[in-house]
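Entry 12.
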Amino acid sequence: TLADLLEGMREPLEARELRFHLLPEDFKAAGAAVLAALEQYAASQPGWVIAPHNYEGLRVAVPSQKGWFLLRM
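Predicted 3D structure (tokens):
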């Protein structure tokens, strides 16, 4: 079960959730533009790894910081 898989795992040392409000009337297009810009930026960062199949948004691993972040709409 899922509980069995999670047994023995520790809570992360740090977790943070931020929510941004998109002000343009066409917030969907604005959000897509932000996701595309972040993907381009993340791809240019040494050591950052973009998850190839993430259906929630853009997930980027940053191994040097032992963490990751997710941007979604």
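Annotation: The longest strand covers residues 58-62. The mean pLDDT is 91.
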